[in-house]
Write a structure and sequence with these properties.
The complex is a heterodimer. Chain A is of the alpha/beta class. Helices cover 35% and strands 15% of the residues of chain A. Chain A has helices at residues 3-13, 28-34, 48-62, 74-77, 80-88, 115-119, 132-147, 160-164, 188-200, 210-214, 218-228, 259-267, 280-283, 319-326, 336-348, 362-372, 385-393, 414-424, 446-451, 467-476, 511-517, 531-540; strands at residues 18-21, 41-44, 66-70, 93-99, 125-128, 153-159, 204-208, 232-234, 249-252, 270-274, 294-299, 313-316, 378-381, 402-403, 430-435, 457-462, 521-525, 545-550. In chain A, α1 runs parallel beside α7. The longest helix of chain A has 16 residues, at 132-147. Chain A starts with a helix and ends in a 25-residue tail after the last strand. Chain B contains four helices and nine strands, in the order βαββαββαββαββ. The chains are: A alpha/beta, B alpha+beta. Chain A binds chain B through residues 116-117, 120-121, 124-125, 128, 145, 177-180, 301-303, 305-307, and chain B through 10-11, 15, 18-19, 22-23, 26, 56, 59-60, 63-64, 66-73.
């Protein structure tokens, strides 16, 4: 066997069924080996970034390792945003890149880039394969590292001469890495101490993050919350870890979180963090975050503990294991007063928006989409207002149904991720909730979706602006709309503070025609009475469908906690 | 802020040093010195990293180092009983009358003379870093032409 065949045989043995990728000179030998292996499907995207996000979406939706391949140089560098996105959100990927032959490395050869150097800070680990004899071991290690502990992307750079070198194949039976041994079971003493603290608490809150989903701990989380009666708030990546409609759910906290979640955090005397990392978009001003609370922090990554917030009881390990140990040690808490207080906030300050005649409110569209799909669709998002409205108004019922770039905040993520999710679950409804700006970042993948019969739905909330940045310009920069209007034309004046009747009318591109050009279906709606029919038409369509919804240009996401302010400094949401 | 001495056993692969230094650079930790060399095990190298920071920062440094796959073991020697040494090569102006004084200082610090020219004396000293600081301070008035320090290497006593 040659190196390329060994590589493909290893993928087969790792159970890989689908690879997302794009060819190139230094990839031909590897692709050639795939030619003879029909059980591995290669999904050819139209851009390497699309391939990386699709592999990420596949991984998030299925819980399996996503695999992406690209050639050396520009192919590899085009993966970088996708790899960084996966790294920030702890998503298991194995990225395989072609490389110039070992004899040419360092020579500035054609399509050479030091991709191991470039991706070092955005991968969990990476490898440059110097010897074909190491290849099988490296691939086993890569899958193990990517999927264990705190998951993450691993890159393997395969020089062309290594891919062509001949060797008898031997499959390493075991993986042994002396510098890598993630802690899975929590320290029993810490777990006991945590249980005691929980049983003594009067106003506790559970703060659940993406780690609950990564470890598959959603059932245990539900049992734990129901047994004790503790309200649950979720991070953006934690949405779906606990049913949004559950009476104990207070939904998302943080910058665009609910008033009742942020109130609960402000007043709690104990915060039980499960698989969350106290990100700045969650905590706001650190000194004033959960000011009265003791903190229990369950996390598989020791570096997350006490990184930003001082923790009283850290428990390092897998969330599922630890919750299983914790459940028998706790019982129903006498916290009726606290629960009533939280319920009262929920009633008084629900997520809301102002209705207006003759215009479509994005929140109304998403709320209705949530109702029609019963919260059971797989939703992906781009980044910005579309993402926050989706997080606020779609009621998620199960884990792995909300795929969004939380940590890196990558525009252009949602659509390719939806393609990956649809490949993992061909029978499910997969919808990318997009903005008119971010959908254009990877819109070329329409071709991938159409030619692969992937009936992904794209819901474009078109406000003709890069809405979230425009919202910040409006609220924090005195309405100085610089570089955020997508209708802007050459003849527009240099400065602009608001849209007006004089604004150019024809939005570029025409999304409906674009959909048609790709062989997909498209529809544009502008009036509220069209919402119902359009959503039903979109959901009933058998192919790729683009629904462009014209929404008010200056619609804002509320509540909002200004960057760096305390969670008590919310704007909006209190009416 | 406290100065900490951290001993790190790492895989002897190419690129490991870059992983460590880019971790420090990317997270804004301040390296005072870093040395690396072979150990009794050919497949591993030992790095001795001297880093400034308060307790929380140093805890993060150690945890982040441990998180690297190529790092086998991290030992914080700061609060342990440990032996540390640093090597100094220093070239000092020494003409006429000052020559004798320089040689005397070198003797006091157990230095060895590695080179003498009509205008300069080059001395080698191996000692604890603080002692080397003191030696350099003593020689400063004579005029230091050039010097090189290796940075600290350290081992736990037990």
């Amino acid at each position: 066997m040659n190196g390329a065949q060994i590589l493909i045989e290893c993928l087969r043995r790792e159970g890989v069924e689908v690879v997302f990728g794009y060819p190139g000179g230094r990839m031909i030998s590897i692709l050639d080996a795939l030619y003879d292996v029909p059980e591995i499907r290669l999904v050819l995207t139209r851009h390497e970034q699309g391939a990386a996000h699709a592999a990420d979406g596949y991984a998030r939706a299925s819980g399996r390792v996503g695999v992406v391949m690209a050639t050396s140089g520009p192919g590899a560098t085009n993966l970088v945003t996708g790899i960084a996105t996966a790294y920030m959100d702890s998503i298991p990927l194995v990225c395989i890149t072609g490389q110039v032959p070992t004899t040419l490395i360092g020579n500035d050869a054609f399509q050479e880039a030091d991709i191991c150097g470039i991706t070092r800070p955005i991968t969990k680990h990476n490898y440059l394969v110097n010897d074909v004899a190491d290849l099988a071991r490296i691939i086993r290690e890569a899958f193990y590292i990517a999927s264990s502990g705190r998951p993450g992307p691993v890159l393997i750079d395969v020089p062309n001469d290594v891919a062509l070198a001949e060797l008898d194949f031997s499959w390493p039976q075991e993986v042994a890495i002396r510098g890598y041994d993630p802690t899975i079971t929590g320290n029993p003493r810490q777990i006991r101490r945590a249980a005691e603290l929980i049983m003594r608490s009067k106003q506790p809150v559970i703060y659940a993050g993406g780690g609950v989903i990564a470890s598959g701990a959603h059932k245990e989380l539900c049992i734990f919350a129901e047994k004790t009666g503790i309200p649950v708030t979720m991070t953006l990546l934690g949405l779906g870890a606990f049913p949004g409609a559950h009476p104990l759910s207070v939904n998302m906290l943080g910058m665009h979180g609910t008033v009742y979640a942020n109130n609960a955090v402000n007043e709690c005397d104990l915060m039980i963090s499960v698989g969350a990392r106290f990100d700045d978009r969650v905590t706001g001003k650190l000194d004033e975050f959960a000011p009265h609370a003791k903190i229990i922090h369950i996390d598989i990554d020791p570096t997350s503990v006490s990184k930003s917030v001082r923790v009283d009881i850290p428990i390092v390990g897998d969330a599922k294991h630890i919750l299983k140990e914790l459940i028998p040690l706790v019982s129903e808490l006498p916290i009726g007063e606290w629960q009533a207080k939280v319920q009262d906030w929920k009633k008084r300050y629900p997520l809301n928006y102002e209705e207006a005649a003759g215009v479509i409110k994005p929140q109304a569209v998403i709320r209705r989409l949530s109702e029609i799909t019963k919260g059971e669709a797989i939703i992906t998002t781009e980044v910005g207002q579309n993402q926050m409205w989706a997080a606020q108004f779609y009621c998620f019922t199960s884990p792995r149904s909300f795929l969004t770039s939380g940590g890196l905040g990558t525009m252009g993520y949602g659509f390719p991720a939806a393609i990956g999710a649809q490949i993992a679950f061909p029978g499910k409804t997969v919808i990318d909730i997009a903005g008119d700006g971010s959908i254009q970042m990877n819109i070329q993948e329409m071709a991938t979706a159409v030619v692969n019969n992937l009936p992904v739905k794209i819901l474009i909330l078109n406000n003709t602006y890069l809405g979230m940045v425009r919202q910040w310009q409006e609220l924090f920069f005195g309405h100085r709309y610089m570089a955020t209007c997508l209708e802007r034309r050459l003849e527009c004046p240099h400065t602009c503070n608001a849209p007006s009747d004089a604004c150019p009318k024809d939005y570029v591109p025409d999304f409906v025609k674009l959909a048609e050009a790709y062989g997909a279906s498209g529809r544009r709606i502008t009036q509220p009475e069209e919402i119902e029919d359009a959503l039903r038409e979109m959901l009933a369509s058998k192919g790729v469908y683009v629904l462009e919804v014209r929404i008010p240009k200056e619609e804002n996401v509320y509540p909002i906690v200004p960057a760096g302010a305390a969670l008590t400094q919310m704007i909006g949401g209190m009416a | 802020m406290k100065t900490n001495t951290i001993s790190v056993l790492v895989e002897n692969h190419f690129g490991v040093l870059t992983r460590i230094t880019s971790l420090f650079a990317g997270r804004g930790y301040n390296i005072q010195s870093l040395t690396v060399g072979p150990t009794e095990d050919a497949s591993a190298s030992r790095m001795t990293i001297v880093v400034d920071g308060d307790t929380e920062i140093i805890d993060q440094v150690k945890k982040q180092l441990n998180k690297l796959i190529d790092v086998i073991k991290v030992v914080d020697l700061t609060n342990e009983d440990f032996i540390d040494r640093e090597l100094l090569l220093i070239k000092v102006s020494a003409k006429g009358k000052t020559r004798f004084s320089v040689l005397q200082f070198a003797q006091v610090f157990d230095g060895s003379i590695v080179d003498i020219t009509p205008n300069f004396i080059t001395i080698e000293v191996s000692a604890r870093s603080s002692k080397i600081d003191a030696f350099i301070a003593l020689l400063e008035p004579f005029g230091i032409k050039e010097m090189a320090r290796t940075g600290r290497i350290a081992l736990a006593r037990s």
